[in-house]
Amino acid sequence: MWTDTFTSMAKVKGRRRGATTISSKHQVTIPVAELRAAGLEAGERLVARADGPGRVILEREHDVLAEFSGALTGVYSDAGLDVLRDEWD
After folding, report:
1. Structural domain count of the chain
2. CATH code for the domain of 32
3. Helices (H) and strands (E) in the chain — how many of each?
4. 65: which of 24, 29, 44, 73 lies 20 to 30 Å off by Cα?
5. Distances (CA, A) of 56 to 50, 53, 80, 81
6. What secondary structure letter does DSSP report for 49?
7. Is the pTM of this model over 0.70?
8. What are the pLDDT digits (tens) for 22-51?
9. Of 15, 23, 18, which Cα lies nearest the Cα of 33?
10. What pairing do the DSSP bridges indicate for beta strands 46-50 and 56-60?
11. Cα(40)–Cα(34) distance, integer angstroms
């Protein structure tokens, strides 16, 4: 019967907007509108932390490497870097 293929209207009406279910693998699907409102995109790494009973906070992972990349520009001369690199061999 065709009702096996489609979600019943009763199930659709029973859902709350923005609500999701925890799967048996402890996964959840976050609604796209909420991700966009938070400025998050697919592929970004998040940190999850509990904030009391029934509450989990998801935050963008802090990328320390990106923060400090290029911070020492101009500290070493080109010749000084070549000397340091020669020590590696």
Report:
1. 1
2. 2.10.260
3. 4, 2
4. 29
5. 5, 8, 49, 46
6. E
7. no
8. 999 999 999 899 999 999 999 999 999 999
9. 18
10. antiparallel
11. 9
